[in-house]
Known about the structure:
Shape: rod-shaped
Structural class: alpha+beta
Low-confidence stretches: 149-154
Number of helices: 3
Order of helices and strands: HEEEEHEEH
Largest sheet: 2 strands, antiparallel
Strand content: 15-25%
Number of strands: 6
Radius of gyration: 41 Å
Mean pLDDT: 77
Amino acid sequence: MEHRNKITDIDYRTPLQWAKDKKIVNTDAVGIEMWSNANHYKSFLYYTPEQVHEGTAEELESFWAPIRKEKRERAEKRAAEKRAREAEERRRERDELLADTQAETVHSILTHIVERSQATAPDNSGIIVLAVSYTHLTLPTKRIVEISVGAGALKKKKKKRHRSRHEHEDR
């Protein structure tokens, strides 16, 4: 199969190229399949000037209608995809802002609680244990946070040693 650029003495064109000049390929025309260029990427059917005629308004409309419809559908699909990407980005930004706001709120509450309770670490380590419980964690509901503050020594309890029967008898 030849590629179109090798043949320069005959005006070979695709139906689309002829339609741009307001010509329509005859129904009985037999095209020649050729590569569109030397890269052999895609082949098309090509027609000579003898295989086309001046298109009527109805013929040209019938030729262009499906092309315009496909172009419109592609544009609508791209626009819908763009709207979906933008909506997802807005949702992600809103969720990040909400998470940041919640973290700031929790930090503020914890700071306030620690200051009011004057809690200090019993072993002077600077560590205060706060038990925090979150409920209703699905977006976009309100969060209820329960915080309990406790400052106490975290020391191991001494295990009571059980005496054996012999030790009891010896006493």
